[in-house]
Every structure is written in structure tokens, then in C-alpha cells.
Amino acid sequence: MPGVTxxxxxxxxxxxxxxxxxxxxxxxxxxxxxxxxxxxEMSRARRLAPIRPEEVVGRAAxxxxxxxxxxxxxxxxxxxxxxAVSDAAVKAKELEIHLKxxxxxxxxxxxxxxxxxxxxxxxxxxxxxxxxxDSAAKTFDFDLEQAQSRRVDQILRDPKIVSMMRExxxxxxxxxxxxxxxxxxxxxxxxxxxxxLSPVSxxxxxxxxxxxxxxxxxxxxxxVAVLHDVTHEKEISEMKNDFVSNVSHELRTPLASIKAYVExxxxxxxDDEKTKREFYEVIQNEANRLGRLIDNILNISRIESGLxxxxxxxxxxxxxVRDAMEVIAPQAAQKGVRLxxxxxxxxxxxxxxRDMLYQAVLNVLGNAVKYTPAGGExxxxxAVDEARRTVTVRITDTGVGIPPQxxxxxxxxxxxxxxxxxxxxxxxxxxSLVKHIVxxxxxxxxxxxxxxxxxxxxxxxxxxxx
Length: 466
Ligand code: ADP
Description:
Blueprint: H1 2-45, H2 53-57, H3 65-115, E1 119-123, E2 129-132, H4 134-140, H5 144-147, H6 152-155, H7 159-170, E3 178-186, E4 189-201, E5 220-229, H8 231-266, H9 273-304, E6 312-316, H10 317-335, E7 338-342, E8 349-353, H11 354-370, E9 377-385, E10 390-397, H12 430-441, E11 445-451, E12 455-463
Parallel strand pairs: 7-9
Antiparallel strand pairs: 1-2, 1-5, 3-4, 4-5, 6-8, 9-10, 10-12, 11-12
Helix pairs in contact: 8-9, 9-12, 10-11, 11-12
Bound molecules: adenosine-5'-diphosphate (ADP).
Adenosine-5'-diphosphate (ADP) binds next to helix 11 and helix 12.
């Protein structure tokens, strides 16, 4: 039965083929599972590594061609991916370092800017505020936190500063650094500032341009404005100018009359003893005036320039007033002016420089006697206001008084009321010194009330100390 034999053979061959195919499929399935497991293992460990063939097909069985090709491709991808991951990790590390350095530099710059007393404003290429310090916020009266990244023209109510910063940015620093003097209306009043505007280079370093203002190859990214308050310096220099011109004028007057009278004497214009004596007296008076003038000028300028050392200690104003009264008493008696007092206890004290305060009381008291005709009276009072914690010195005379239009100026340097000029010689510096001693040195307050023909009251008030 050849047909049956053939069938058996065919069945046997098919069975063998099926067995072979089954075996191959089984092996491929195992290899695929091994490959999958190995990839999973790498993914779990987050580390890529090439897969060796024996890890997938087993040490005993060499890998088939197809599996070999797949393995090769997988390993190539793994190697590329591994290299890319390593590169990225190095770059990430570098970026992290750069970021740390940049953050530290920014914090450093911010710390410097916040610690300086000048007002600093930094804008970017869109005229938006990127940095400002406390001093700038106070000067221009804006909220630091809310101002960040807002346009400067929305923050600053000073169109001049805004336009100067904008012009500097638009000019890309071609004109270099600019320094201008500018007056700003601050919450504390109008102040004068020296404004330095510098272009900021747009380069990677983000720093300000060099000393010449050159912005480098990158162009201007923004502007730094530094405002230095020069109000006090300006006031001092104006005061010095006024002072010098006033002093030279005041010194020239007595000197001119001394010269004139000496020439008259030399030319023999005074032929009798009486006239000579008159001339000598004029020369003596003018020389005395010159001496007083020089003393007062030196006193004022030494105090104003800070050359005199201020030595404040708790002082009884009553005691200081008593000392000054003792010195003035003979002068008052000689002139026929009565001195009376109404003083508080010595126990109340103010922090004061005794010598300076004594000088101030002496000047006011001296004026009271000087501008009061014989038969008049000068009363010296000290009073304490417990509630306000102040002590007041008040010196009232029954003298000639001061015309109302002159009153606001009597504390000014060299000011002498025309109406009283003939009453007594003077320099117009005594009350200016009083004001300086009381208000600048002791942070006190001076005051004056006067009525022509009835008399004047001059005085000052200081805070009591504990
Ligand atoms: P002076 O050396 O001229 O007295 P002061 O500065 O002491 O300078 O005073 C300025 C001016 O104020 C005086 O010239 C005078 O006209 C006026 N004055 C000051 N004290 C009195 C006073 N007690 N009574 C009237 N006038 C006074």
C-alpha cells in the first residue's frame, strides 16, 4: 500500500516540519522575551548599555541572523542615546554652574546697589525698570515691588529723567556717559542731583559700558542712572559766595573811613586838638568795628565749617543765662538800663554745648541792652514746658523795637535794620550766629516778636534731656 506509506511519510515529514517550526518559534519567542526583559532592566536602572548576544540567545545557542541584526540596531541606538544623554548631562551641569555664577553676580550687584545712598535706576532695552534701590524709590516716591518690569514713564513723575534715560538708550551710548545737574521734586522738597547716565552693554555680561561710555559691539541694552544729592554742597557754595561778597563789602566800609581820617590827619586838616581828638575817636571806633566784624566772621565760619568741636552735655539753661547776665550787668548799669530776671530752677537740663549756648545768650542779651535807651528795662526769663519737654529762654526789652518789614530778616547774616543803625554800632552777624548755634548745632527753635517804640522779645527753645 504505497499510498498509505506515502501518506505516513508525508504525515511524518509534516510532523517533523511542524516540530521544527514550533521549535524555531519557541526559540524566537524566548529571545524576544529576553531582549524585552533586558531593555526593561535598563529602563528601570535608567542606564543604557549595549546588549551582548548571549544575554538574549543564551550562551549555548548562537543567535539567528534576524535576531542578530535587530540586536545590532538596538545596540547602535543604545550607544547613540547613551552618548547624547552623557552630553546633555555635561551641558546641564555647565548651565547649572553658569546660572549659579549669574545669580551670585546679580545678587552681588543688587547688594551693592541697595547699600549705596545714591538713587540708582536701571532700565532695559524697552525702557522698563529692571533694578532700582530704596533711595530711588524714596526720591521719586514709588513702590519698589510694584515698579519691577514696568515702564519708567509709568513709574517716575519726572518727565526730564524719563526723557534723559530714553535718549541715552536711543543714542546707543554713542555720546558716552552723560553727567547733568537736575532738580527733582521729592516728597521732602526740591533737591538738586548730579545725574550720571551710562549705557548698559547688551552683550552677554550685561554690564555697563566702559568709562568712555562705549557700548561695545552689542549696542545699548538699557541705561543706568545714578543720582547723587548735591543740594547741601550747592547751598554751601552759594552761602560761601554770598558770605565772601558780603564780608569784603563790610570790611571795606570801616577800612575806608579809617583811611580817610588818617589822610585828613596827615594832610593837616585837623589843626586844633579838639578836631584831632574827634578824628582819633572815629578811627578808634571804626577799628573796633573792624575787630568785632573779624571776630564774628571767624566765629561763624568756624562753627559752620565744623572746625569748632561741639561738646554737648546736659546743661542748665538757667545757669548759663545767669553767667551771661553777670557779664552784661556792668554795661546795663552804665547805660541806666535795669536788668530783671524770672528764672526756673537750675534742675532742668538740655543737651547743649555750654560755651556756644553762652555765646548765643550773650548776643541776645547784649542786643537788648544795646537797643534799649537809658531808663528802659531788660527782663530775662527761662520757662519749662513739662508736657512738650522743652525749655525756653526769653529776653524782653523796652527798647526801640524793629519795624515789621525788617523782622523776617534780622537773623540773616549782615542784616541790620536801617531804623536802628544809628542807635548802636554793630555788624549784623550776632543774631545769625545765635540762629546757627540754636538751630543747626542744637536743633532748637529761635523766635522774635517786636513792636516799634515798645520793645522786642528775642528767645529760643531747646528740648529737655532725660
Ligand atoms: P548787630 O551787630 O547789628 O546788632 P545782630 O545780628 O545782632 O547785629 O542784629 C541784627 C539787627 O537786628 C540789628 O542791627 C538791629 O537792627 C536788630 N536788633 C537786634 N536785636 C534788637 C533789639 N533787641 N531791639 C531792636 N533791634 C534789634
